Amino acid sequence: TVELENDSIQETPTLNNNNCVSNKQNGHNIKLKNEDQISGYLSIYKILQLIGIFLILSVFLWLQIYRTGFGFSGTIKICNWHPLLMTITFVYLFANSILHFRNFRSNTKRKLKMQHAAIHSCIIIFGVLGIWTGLNSNLIANPPIPQFYSLHSWLGIITVIMFLSQFISGLISFLYPEIAMKYKEAVMPYHIIFGILTFALSIVTSVLGFSEKIIFAVNQQHGHLPTEGLFLNCVGIVLIFYGALVVYILIKPEYKRSSKPDDGVTHNGAAH
């Protein structure tokens, strides 16, 4: 009996040691997996940034070379600010804003929320300026161009309303300290879903805007596929690819920022 007891006593540390080794190995494997996932995300993110900068430069060069450039007098030069500013705000900055939680995942959730709101504020400020240039150029045209008659303008209104609704509801729900945690957790999935939908709609609206502007610009020559039309068609395809890549990153669970103990709101959504 004593012999059996001694054997049992000797075996117990071995089992415990095996468990410790197994746990350490599992933890190491998880760490390596997380590092690989972050590395994969960063690679895609760098490509995304290059595409975003390419889009902005392409729109700028198109307007500068083919559409007489920019200015604050003259219908065309004022109107040219509209596609450039809207590309910067509702495409590039919007994409970076909704990816901000993943790009800077090591920051605290509170800091990320404040930065997220700050980027959205910049989008609103420069977006309003972009909208004003579009509307004002129509008013000063001779003869004046009717407002809000195209599908592009209708979708633009819907996009702006959805964006502002997201911004206001986000400020109240996630930055106002008096809101109960259970309410924040209930709102989070809808905030994420509508954020993705708003971004997707902004991409569609932008593509329609490019198409509308090039048709008006080259008029009957568009059917012969002039250089300007070919160039802008390519920009539109790149823009769609850019939007699809952003959505892919958002809905891929492996790229999601891991929750931390001091985050407050836990969620299983895609956008953060």
TrEMBL record:
InterPro entries: CYB561/CYBRD1-like (IPR043205), Cyt_b561/ferric_Rdtase_TM (IPR006593)
Cofactor annotation: heme b
Pfam families per UniProt: Cytochrom_B561
Primary localization: membrane
Record-linked SMART domains: B561 (SM00665)
Residues spanning the membrane: 47-65, 85-104, 116-135, 155-176, 188-210, 230-251
Gene3D superfamilies documented for this protein: 1.20.120.1770
Subcellular location: Membrane
Keywords: Electron transport, Heme, Iron, Membrane, Metal-binding, Transmembrane, Transmembrane helix, Transport
UniProt cross-references to PROSITE patterns, sorted A to Z: CYTOCHROME_B561
Signal peptide stretch: none
Domain Cytochrome b561: residue ranges: 47-251
Gene Ontology molecular function terms on file: metal ion binding; oxidoreductase activity
GO CC annotations on file: membrane
Bilayer topology term: Multi-pass membrane protein
Entry keyword annotation includes Coiled coil: no
Protein name: Cytochrome b561-like isoform X1
Source species of the chain: Aphis craccivora
Organism placement in taxonomy: Eukaryota, Metazoa, Ecdysozoa, Arthropoda, Hexapoda
